[in-house]
Amino acid sequence: MEKNPAVPREPGHEVGDAHGLLLAYLDYYRAVVLAKVDGLSEEELRTSRLPSGWAPLEMIWHLAHVERRWLRWGFLGEAVEEPWADWLHGPGGEKQRWAVPDGVSTAEVLETFHRYAADSRAITADVALEARAEGGGRFAGEGEAPTLGWILFHLLQEYARHAGHLDVVRELADGTRGE
């Protein structure tokens, strides 16, 4: 089994403030998940190896929409079209699993991921961690909205968890191991 040399290094030890650390680790994990799928064939990107049914490309599509849900729709309170566009829905509207819509290419998935991540960077760059999400959007009717710090920490744990999922899937696909 090979180790994947494309996996980036963690942020440097010199990053000390919480805001900078959260943003640096989010960028690190964004790069990690992309490295985990780099080099997979189109077939492997779209093939599930797990009972839950998701494929690696669907994970990247999901993470792109996670960015948009938590920061544009959630933190900014903006109306976004189809906030759950990464989910395949059942006949009763229930979420079943992640899915890339028919006709969406790998290049489009990656472009969407990069665009939504760039949007998130712009949204969070100069905002204090203590700032609360705007009313409306994702947090409408839920009482006091979360802080930016809470949202960023939630995103960080989601990325870390999904990077681990992609480690397993990549090893099953071609033997490449994560670190």
How many helices? Answer: 5
Strand order of the largest sheet: 1-2
How would a crystallographer describe the biggest sheet?
Answer: 2 strands, antiparallel
What's the quaternary structure here? single chain
Unreliable stretches: none
**Average of pLDDT:** 90
Distance between the termini: 12 Å
Helix content: 40-55%
Tell how many strands the DSSP assignment holds. 2
User: Rough shape?
Assistant: globular
> How large a portion of the residues is in β-strands, by DSSP E?
under 5%
Category from helices, strands and their pairing? mainly alpha
Radius of gyration: 17 Å
Order of helices and strands: HHHEEHH
InterPro entries: DinB/YfiT-like (IPR034660), MST-like (IPR007061)
Pfam family, one: MST
